Structures are given as C-alpha cells and as structure tokens.
Amino acid sequence: MRSLRPLSLCLLALLLVAGCGSASDDDGPARPGSVKVVATTTQVADFVRAVGGERVEVVQVLQPNSDPHDYEPRPDDVRALLDAPLVFESGDDLDAWMAKVVEASGADPRVVTLAATNITHVAGEESGSEASRYDAHWWHDPRNVEAAIPVIRDALSRANPSVASVYARNARAYLEQIRRLDAGIAACMRHVPAAQRKLVTDHDAFGYFARRYGIDVVGAVIPSQTTAAQPSAGDVAQLTDTIRRERVLAVFPEHSLSRKLAQAIARETGASSAYTLYGDTLGPADSDGATYLAMERHNADAMVQGFSGGGERCRFDAAGAR
User: What is the DSSP letter of 36?
Assistant: First the structure.
C-alpha cells in the first residue's frame, strides 16, 4: 500500500483552509439526536444503517462495486474522522488501510472491528500477519452477521445513549430478517442435490457461504482470497481441467471484477457464465445487491440456477423466507 503521508499533509491543509477535496453531504456534523459514524465497507455500512436507522449518520468509505482489497484512501476519508466518535471496520485484513487513515487524521475515534467479535472463522491464507489466518469474507455466513449486530447495537448505544432503545428495537427487527434469510437460503439449496453444488467463482470469496449451505468450492479464476493476486497460465489451465473433470455447470463472475477471464474459461469448458455474484461489495441502489439481505438472496438464486442448469430458482417472500 502506498504511504499515507500525502493524506497527512492534506489534512493540515484542510484544517487551515478547509480545502483538499470535495466533502459529501454526509461529511458534516450529525443531526441532533443522531450520531455520526464512519464505516469502511458497503456491507458494514449497511449493517450500521439497519441498526441505527434515522439515529445514525453513516459516512461510507467504499462505494458500491468498489474493491476493498486494493482501495487507496483519499483525503476526504481522513476529514470524515474529525467529528466521528465511532469507526466500524470489517477486519481480517480486508480494510487494514483504515488504521493508517485513523493515524493520519490525528483523531481518536473508537474503532470497532466486527471480525474480532464472536464470529466463527474460516481458515484464510498465511501471509505473515495474524489477521490473514482467516478468510476476510465472514459476512457470507448469516450467523456471523447475527453475531455482529449486537456489537454494533452496543457501540451505537454507548456513543448515543439517549436513543439506546431505538437501536435495540432496530437490532431485534434486523436479526429476525437475518434468521429468515438464513433459513430461506438453506431451504432453497436443498432443491439442488449436494453432488451438483459445485462452485467456481472469480476469486475465493465464498468459503463461508459454501460451508454454511453445503457447497463444494471447486476452484476460482483468481486462486486467492484477495483480488490483488493474479492467476498464472498454469492456474487457468488447471482450473479448466478441473471444471471439465468435475462436470461443473457454471462459472460465476463477480459484479465488482472484470468478467472476461471467467467468461473465457466458461466458453472453453462449455460451462455457463450467465449467473453473477456479489462477493466483496454490495451493488448500486438500483441493483439486486443493493443491501446485504438482497445481495445474499441474489447470490443464492444465482448459484441455484447455475448448479441446476437453470432448472431451479430461489424465490423469497417479503420476509426473506423461501
């Protein structure tokens, strides 16, 4: 990652002349009765909004369809911290860049790392750091989100105790939606025989989802849990052979990554590449992945269609159950 020294210099300019980048509407002080927080990723911001409702103002660092693995912090990210008492980050190295943003700001917000809460981890990739031992995509198991929501509730309540009852009520309602989502996805997956649930994605981001719903991760175009890696010609050839041998019916591109290589591998092997997934990030407001709940419903439906050759669908009711 590049040095954040330019951010520190820009912060000084901000303090002197209120310049260096354009502030968004969310960069000002929080409305009376609400608390301003910074959230690093699209999923984390969505969780915080679900719990905080109208009593929270969220400055979201990453925008839809942006890759957290290679994000370069901006001066506006530093400025957002100046009057935010809370920072929510995902953790497990996915948004490790946030620590340098906090340092560059000179502010002292409380930083809540959701991956450090009582979630059940999937093994990650050893690369020398403690956090890299765990797969960073913990939210793809709804039970982990269920564990994170009380942590968000308690942190918001501590920062804004006068409306703690609102946060508690919102958290209860959202937890019920998470449980219905989990049950609905599990019910839908049972319509596809376990032997057909063979997953090939753009990168290795769905280990939690696969473990929760009985899916066999056959391979990934980028054979890594970070998109910063690049596949070699040998990796691609090996994956192509595996897809043929395992008779995989679909290769699943991701919305936030280039689809060209996944589509080429699908053409080479006769697999479909028609079903896309949301892996590291939510989609835009008008997309099927605009919220966490919508994202996971979309992913489940796409996988079931791909696994079944288009013969099955996941159809969720308004409450999230199938």
Answer: E
At the second CATH level, the architecture of 5-184 is 3-Layer(aba) Sandwich (3.40)
Instruction: Say what angle helices 164-189 and 292-307 make with each other, to 10 degrees.
Output: 0
Structure tokens at 111: 């930083």
Residue 155 one-letter amino acid: A
CATH architecture of 193-307: 3-Layer(aba) Sandwich (3.40)
Residue 254 forms beta bridges with which residues? 277
* Distance of alpha carbon 281 from alpha carbon 80, whole angstroms: 21
| SS3 at position 273 | coil
Phi-psi domain of 8 (left: phi exceeds 0; alpha: psi -120 through 50; beta: other):
alpha
pLDDT one digit per residue (tens) for the chain, 322 residues = 334 444 444 443 443 333 333 334 355 566 778 999 999 999 999 999 999 999 999 999 999 988 888 788 899 899 989 899 999 999 988 999 999 999 999 999 999 999 988 888 877 654 444 445 788 999 999 999 999 999 999 999 999 999 999 999 999 999 999 999 999 999 999 999 999 999 999 878 899 999 999 999 999 887 655 555 566 788 889 989 999 999 999 999 988 677 788 889 999 999 999 999 999 999 999 999 999 999 999 999 999 999 999 999 998 876 555 5
Question: Exposed, middle or buried: residue 91 (CB in 10 Å: 0-12, 13-18, 19+)?
Answer: buried
CA–CA separation, 89 vs 112, rounded Å? 6
Query: Shortest CA distance to 275 belongs to which of 246, 248, 258, 250?
Result: 250
Two domains, one topology: 5-184 and 193-307: yes
Those residues whose C-beta lies under 8 Å from the C-beta of residue 214, and which sit 6 or more positions away, are 189, 194, 197
CA 86 to chain CA centroid, nearest Å? 19
Domain boundary assignment for the chain? 5-184, 193-307
